[in-house]
Design brief:
Elements: H1 2-32, H2 43-54, H3 68-80, H4 91-97, H5 116-130, H6 135-150, H7 158-162, H8 170-173, H9 182-192, E1 203-205, H10 213-216, E2 220-224, E3 227-230
Antiparallel strand pairs: 1-3, 2-3
Helix pairs in contact: 5-6, 5-9, 6-9
Length: 231
């Protein structure tokens, strides 16, 4: 009887351990099943593809089908934004895209209250205006744009500042449409998150290329790479 009792308790322990393992697996699968990943379909996938396309990371159809091209684009996005590059659009990835899904409103955007489209637009200008500059200089260009939003002499929106007539040469020479460097996306997010290597500047110029005597008269705050940042 004693041996039978020990056998019974061992069997009970094994059953309880198995039950616990099954419960954990069910809970885990219940969590991951709602994430957009390869094979998923639906409106959330459409939003993901739209964000990726706006950032120049996805060139396929916005069809709501999470195929290999969408997965690869998500991986690129994750690498740029310092996320786990697994190709699965989980909570952190969706929040970084400005889609939400993890308790953050879609309107609060990818960082600092800006949407993913704002980040993409800022990155395009940073890339066009400071391609080849040190990373700190790229962030500084982004910071100048953001500083203008808060300055009374400029429009009070990101798009307004960027598209203000004559503000940025890249809008006139077509460089705004050139492929965006990965570093420009990181620089845009760093600037939005508060890093300002420009020291509060609202202007910058390259003395080797600029011809405006007016810009030469602006007080220089700092010099980074080929750019002088001014108040």
């Amino acid at each position: 009887m004693k041996g039978y009792g020990m056998f019974f308790w061992r069997l009970l322990v094994i059953l309880l351990v198995n039950l616990l393992a099954i419960t954990l697996l069910i809970g885990h699968s219940g969590t991951t099943a709602v994430l957009s990943q390869q094979g998923s379909r639906g409106d959330e996938v459409v939003k993901i593809q739209t964000v990726l396309q706006n950032q120049g990371l996805y060139s396929g159809n916005v069809d709501g089908i999470y195929g290999s091209n969408t997965k690869n684009a998500v991986i690129k996005f994750q690498k740029i934004n310092g996320l786990t590059a697994d190709g699965v659009a989980g909570k952190n990835t969706l929040n970084a895209m400005g889609i939400g899904g993890g308790g953050q409103s879609a309107n609060t955007g990818a960082a600092g209250g800006y949407s993913s489209n704002d980040v993409a637009l800022l990155a395009k200008v940073i890339s066009a205006e400071s391609r080849g500059e040190p990373y700190e200089g790229q962030v500084a260009v982004g910071a100048v744009i953001l500083n203008r939003i808060e300055h009374p002499s400029f429009p009070n929106t990101l798009a307004g500042v960027i598209y203000q007539p004559g503000a940025f040469s890249c809008l006139n020479d077509g460089q705004i449409d050139a492929p965006v460097s990965d570093s420009a996306y990181r620089a845009a997010r760093d600037a939005i998150n508060g890093w300002d290597p420009s020291g509060g500047a609202v202007y910058y110029y390259n003395p080797k290329k600029s011809t405006s005597q007016w810009i030469f008269s602006r007080p220089v705050i700092t010099i980074i790479g080929d750019h002088r940042f001014c108040s």
